[in-house]
Amino acid sequence: MLKRRVGQWLNIIGWDPRKIPMALKEWPEVRAERKAFKNHNLSIGAATEFPLGSNYYIFGERSSDAGEASGHYFHQDLLVAREIHQRNPSRHIDVGSRVDGFVAHVASFRDIEVIDVRPLKPTEGIHFIQADVMNLDSNFTGVTDSVSCLHALEHFGLGRYGDPIDPDGWRRGFDSLTRMLQPNGILYLSVPTGQNQRVEFNAHRVFSLPFLRDHVRHDYVIERCAFITDAGELLPDIDPDSPEAEQSFAAEYGCSVWVLRRADLEPELVQ
Questions:
Q1: Structural domain tally of the chain?
Q2: Which pLDDT band holds residue 20 (cuts at 50, 70, 90)?
Q3: Is the same domain home to 99 and 224?
């Protein structure tokens, strides 16, 4: 247990001890390849164009796949961006999702508005508003037919991004997302999901699927639900009332992705 905790802390501060065995394994071969490259570079005269600079060794990639086509962000970003492309809403507002992932996906084919508590530099196709969605101005009531919040709601109120501490921050944020939508508008939502609902301060909350399912049904009709397993595999269309869903697919840290249609009712204001 102590060894695991030490490893986690080293990873948090930017040093991954799991890379050490791979580096030790590959070092002799990489060193030999550098020597061979240097000799060949000189023999063909290429060194005049590309002289050797300082060493910058990368280990572990010769045995890896071409890319990471799995995991929470890969699947959720692609799934929701495709949904938005197909539905083509009049206006789309994103709250707190990853800018160099999902937001960039959407900005490649349409303009997108982004709300975040942190600042963001101006970027073509991305219109930014800095605001705390837990305390959103009433001027945002009923302003759009499409909202996304991917892998962000779980952070609200934990202070990780400079937001105010609020144990109920996720609920206040969720109410604001709902209030932003026009009747029958669509909310795209994803959060970490597992069997054991919990807060892992100050990183995130993990929601159980039944808890979240029952909560969203107060204001929404569930049009689609997907699940990303602990192994990073996508289950693209699940029944949120199935026995597997009741157990959150036995996940420790999975991810549920929801396409929700706002019920044709006037949204309640956040108290």
A1: 2
A2: confident
A3: yes
- For residues 89 and 117, give the distance between their C-alpha atoms in angstroms, rounded to a whole number: 24
**31/46 Cα distance (integer angstroms):** 20
What was the pLDDT predicted at 265? 55
Pair (124, 43) in one structural domain: no
**Helix, strand and coil in the chain, % to nearest 5:** 35, 25, 40
Alpha carbon 155 to its chain centroid, in Å, reads 11
- Cα atoms in the Cβ-side hemisphere of radius 13 Å centred on 138: 4
Q: What is the dihedral of CA 85, 91, 97, 102, to 10 degrees?
A: 20
Q: Dig out the tokens for 237 from the structure.
A: 């269309």
Burial group, residue 53, by CB count within 10 angstroms (0-12, 13-18, 19+): exposed
Provide CB contacts within 8 A for 203, sequence distance 6+.
Answer: 155, 158, 160
